[in-house]
Structure formats: structure tokens, C-alpha cells
Amino acid sequence: MNNSMTEGSEPTLTDKFQRGNVLASSCPSRSILQDVTSRWGVLVLFALLQGTHRFSELRKAIAGVSEKMLSQTLHALEADGFVLRTAHPVIPPHVEYSLTDSGHEVANRVEELVNWIEVNINPILSARDKYSSLKSD
Amino acid sequence: MNNSMTEGSEPTLTDKFQRGNVLASSCPSRSILQDVTSRWGVLVLFALLQGTHRFSELRKAIAGVSEKMLSQTLHALEADGFVLRTAHPVIPPHVEYSLTDSGHEVANRVEELVNWIEVNINPILSARDKYSSLKSD
């Protein structure tokens, strides 16, 4: 993966002409970012890093997601090529969801963000308490 | 920062009892994740990595954001301790927004995700085209 721009170095010509720009509202990279960071998208990618899951297993793993929202989220991630849906031709139907190679790459980055938040939850909650007590003074 | 769990190693006792779990609906880490990955939150963090901005500069940098949504987003990120709001006592009022240390840490992870999407936009868009042509067959 080309990470040359993460360090603040000058973008190459290829970067300039071929990469997206999420700050521009018309750039399709923004809708991809929204699929990945949607309320349930981020949790589906995170959960699928643990391996292949059936729909019902995903619903159980991600507390609070409705059948409809999980279905919509999986469709969007499948359309972007991040999730592979495999339907086994058996009765009753057996459908499994897993990450593709690019799904793994994007999910790894989601995981780093999630892990950072999970590990740093206590100082963040302290900041929240401090903020709300300042605001109520 | 403790990143010991990102490599799939066994969590320590401290990790087990002190870190959040975004897959549990009642865990406050989930609402922090939502502030960070909200439609505009992710773009505000990304834009603030470039440095301190005034409100009007942020609105210009993030195409499409409304005054109301930018204000709500900045409030949420300020409450979590990620964004520092500095009001200079001058006339007319001069308010600046910047990342705190923890804001930098979380924004760096957002940036890695954004960069990956921006750099990989072409294969992702090809996957989308392939998916929609398969679905319309």
C-alpha cells in the first residue's frame, strides 16, 4: 500500500491524479468512507476480522443491530468489494459473510481506531465528565 | 499507548477490566466511536490534522457541511477531549479549534483509514461497477 502521504511528504504525480479527496463533497471516496464508518459498518468490519460469520451470528455479535440495518450494511460493504457473501446451495439456505483482501485491509485500519478508543476509554470518559461539569457551572 | 491487543495477543488482566467493548451496546466506547466516525466527525478530525482552524475555515475546508452540523460535531469532539476550543477575547470574537494530544492520536488513526480509501479509490470503484452490473444481469 502506498502510504507516502501519511507522513506529510509531497504527493507524487500519481497520487495527485489518481487518489480521492474526502474533503470534496463530490468525490466518491466520501461515500466509501461513509460505508466504512457508518454506525454499523464499522462494527461489522470489526466483527468480521474474527472470521467468517453467518447472518445470525453477526446479529448476535453486534449488540443492538436490527435485521434490516445489518442487511443494508452488509449490502453496502459487499458492493464496495469489502465483504464476500457466500450462499451454500443447501436446505435450509446457508449464507456466510467474510472479508475480502481489501476488506481485511480496511478492517485492519478500523480495528486500530477501535482498539485505541477501547484502550483509552477511561481518560476519554474523564474528559467528558470534566467538560459537562464545566458547562454546568 | 497500550497497543498490546492489536496483534491478537492475549489481553492482560488490566486490559480485560479497563478497556471498553464497542460490540456491547451499553459500553460508552460505542458512543465515542460514533462521535469519531460520524459523517462530519471523521472529516473534522482529518481537517484539523492540518493545524488550528477557525470555524469559517473548517466550513470552507469540509465541502457540504452546514453551520449547524459543524457546530454539533465540534461540540461532541470537544466534550470527548479531542478538540480544544480557544476563544480570544477580542472584538469581533475570534474562536479557534485545534486537536488536543488525544485528538491527535485518534485523528492519526482516522487519517490512516482515510488515506487507505483515497489511495485505493480506483479498485473500490471498479468493485462497485462489477457488483452493480452483476446485480442488473
List the helices and strands and how they pair.
The structure is a homodimer.
Chain A: H1 13-18, H2 29-37, H3 41-48, E1 53-54, H4 55-61, H5 67-79, E2 83-88, E3 94-99, H6 101-119, H7 121-136
Helix pairs in contact in A: 3-6
**Mean of residue pLDDT values of chain A:** 89
Distance, first to last CA of chain A: 49 Å
Examine the coordinates and then state which fold CATH places here, giving the name of the CATH topology of chain A. Arc Repressor Mutant, subunit A
Structural Rg of chain A: 19 Å
Which pair of protein chains has the largest interface, and what are the residue counts? A-B, 62 and 62 residues
Number of domains of chain A: 1
- The share of residues in helices of chain A is 55-70%
Q: List low-pLDDT spans of chain A.
A: 1-8
Percent strand of chain A equals 5-15%
Shape of chain A: globular
Strand order of the largest sheet of chain A: 1-3-2
Order of helices and strands of chain A: HHHEHHEEHH
**Category by helix and strand content of chain A:** mainly alpha
SS element count, helices of chain A: 7
The biggest beta sheet of chain A reads:
3 strands, antiparallel
Task: Name its key features.
homodimer, 137 residues, mainly alpha, Arc Repressor Mutant, subunit A, three-stranded antiparallel beta sheet, 7 helices, 3 strands
